[in-house]
Amino acid sequence: MKNIFKIGLSLMLVFIVGCDKDEFAELNSNPSAIAKPSLSYSVATAVEQMYKEDYTTWFYNKFKYEFPWGQLTGSGTGNSEGFVTMGATGTQSNNFYLGVFPNTRDVRAQIDNLPADQQEKYQAIRSLTFAIQIQTAMTITDDYGSMVYSEAALAAYTTPALITPKFDTQEELFTIWLGELDEAIIGLSKEGQVDLVGQDLIYGGDYAKWAKFCNLLKLKIAARLVNADRAKAIAIAEEVANSDAGYMTSLSDDFIYHRGIKYYGTGNGTQPGGAGKNVIDFLIGNKDPRVRFLFTKNSFNGEIVQGFIDNDKALPPYVAANVVLDADGDFEGWAGAGEPWVRYYGAPLSPDAQFDDVYDAYFKQSELNQLMIGSNEKRYSSTSRYSERITRTKMNVTYPTLPGGRILELKDIYPAMKVVLGSSAETNLYLAEFSLLGATLPSSAQEFLNEGVRLSVERMNDLAKNNGDPYYEGDPVYEDDVMEAAGATKLRSGEIDALLAQPALNLATDGLEKVYIQQYLNFAATPGDFFTTVRRSGIPKTGSAILPREAFMSGGFELTVPRRFSIGTPTADYKNYANQKAAIDAQGFTTGTNDPEILNAERLWFDMNNPVFGAGPKN
Predict the structure, then answer these.
(1) Residues 394, 350 within the same domain
(2) Domain that residue 227 falls in
(3) How far apart are CA 486 and CA 351, in angstroms?
(4) Measured distance CA(615)–CA(619) in Å, rounded
(5) Across the strands, what pairs with 373?
(6) 144: left (phi over 0), alpha (psi -120 to 50) or beta
(7) Do 354 and 222 fall within a single domain?
(8) Which of the listed residues 207, 229, 247 is the one where a domain comes to its end?
(9) Does 452 lie in the same domain as 310?
(10) How far is Cα 569 from Cα 383, in angstroms, rounded to an integer?
(11) H/E/C letters for each residue in 178-209?
């Protein structure tokens, strides 16, 4: 060890002696010479930490709570009566306070300590740190309300060290964030800025796109203010629409997160739930291509249908309704829209439906869809599930074939994962909403909606292709080339135009509900914003002729659905106990409970004036 130390010391002396004295002085006195590598590393690390808890986000928050509560999926195939009771959850809090905020604070501190003539060229880098931390913080306040923000991660920069930061209310957070975003947009628009290039995995150092992302974050805040302060929300939307920085308008503007070339999404399976019947019926009824990107095909391809016929096994009635038989009673093809549309079915979501014999074809699939040929047995799914390819790509696929028959697999092909944290589709759909609410904007609500839907479909098609949808190019079980191609889930020419021509997208009637439905569908492919949209919109709407809400009945009584996540009870030995307890008390929250009635009644600030579940939009 001593010898290693001596060698290291000798090398250091050689370096020092070999350096020109002026160069060495410059290296140790010019802050910009050492700041640039450190700054770029801190920015890259902060971005990487924005979306770190992907497994718990999907496994718990989405598939156990938010998607079932919002009626996109069940907690399984349908729901049990306990699905409204919270258990474990995921949160971005740990990464936010241990990864995001320390790095964004560090970047700004380094820049603010540079000489005045050096600071100016680092303003764009300084500015994008606000976008990084606000996007992450918004996912936390959406579930829990008040949080530490304005005084977060200040211990290293204060004397004495600030280790008991205050909690900002949600109303205060929105105000703070709007101010920071306005400041950030100015900084990101400055000329002559230091280039991040390779250290910016999102936009490759294109600060103009970061500025557009800041404007999307402003729209996200405005959306949360719609029923809390509508005048302010509309004013924000008008600011964004008229901003010199512009707003997101194309797929290239989208904020696509990827942790690296070997990032495959969650490390473990996320157990997505089965599709809700009303959502699938809506998508299929409008021939919306997104049904193919959001949900999985069922197992009943032509080969499996023929296998059931050959073995005198009854097909699920909703599958049989789309089967065309020839004169001999064999499978000839598909009725209606054919492949791939006939491969998507959802199940009822009310817990009571599982005990109704009428719905056995949905809830007794393990028994009814079992096929035995010789000594070989397989079970087949006749309904669809949420596509796990949206959450992870490192997974193999075995295509459904007959028991004892051929084995078709897609193995060891793991594309790098893409995750959407903000998009042009979202931007346009927000602007469609605000146009209907009275904002003065450069395009009509219908134009914004059409563009938002077009971008949403195109983005989901891109995700399906990139993330390795096993049916994207075709269904390999079919040996007929025409049928194989027909089974492809990829986007076809003309499909978006046909979708936009559907009455469900014509804003002449029920415009706000229709816009919210499109936001709801768009957010079905993202790790954030879905449940916020459900709470502020009141959709799916009870009795709707477009996308109706299904009553969650259990034992003949309707279940109550939570509107916020449960909060643990703070203990007096926690250093910041006083501030945490004061924040909880100010919000009127009961801690340590997962009672759905309490979690429904005790709302977050942004949710106070939102419609009850199923009530539909507040015009």
Answers:
(1) yes
(2) 39-49+91-247
(3) 36
(4) 12
(5) 376
(6) alpha
(7) no
(8) 247
(9) yes
(10) 41
(11) HHHHHHHHHHHCCCCCCCCHHHCCCCCCCHHH
Q: Is the domain of 418 the same as that of 558? A: yes
Residue 548: strand pairing partners? 541
Euclidean distance between CA atoms 615 and 336, whole angstroms: 34
Judge whether 529 and 220 are in contact, CB under 8 Å. yes
Instruction: Dig out the tokens for 586 from the structure.
Output: 């100010």
Residue 61 lies in a domain: no
* The pair of three-digit structure tokens given for residue 515, joined into one six-digit string: 């816009």
CATH number, domain containing residue 115: 1.25.40.390
How would DSSP label each residue in 591-603? PS---HHHHHHS-
Q: List residues bridging with 558 in a β-sheet.
A: 553
What span, in angstroms and rounded, lies between the C-alpha atoms of 438 and 435?
5
Q: What is d(CA 193, CA 207) in angstroms, rounded to the nearest whole number? A: 9
Regarding whether 189 and 336 lie in a shared domain, the answer is no
Distance of CA 66 to the CA centre of its chain: 11
Domain end, chosen from 230, 247, 264, is at 247
Mean pLDDT by 10 residues, the chain (619 residues): 33 32 36 56 92 95 98 97 95 92 96 94 97 98 98 96 97 98 98 90 95 98 98 98 98 94 92 98 98 98 98 98 98 96 98 97 98 97 98 96 96 95 98 98 98 98 98 97 97 98 98 98 98 98 98 98 97 96 98 98 98 96
**Token reading at 59:** 């496994």
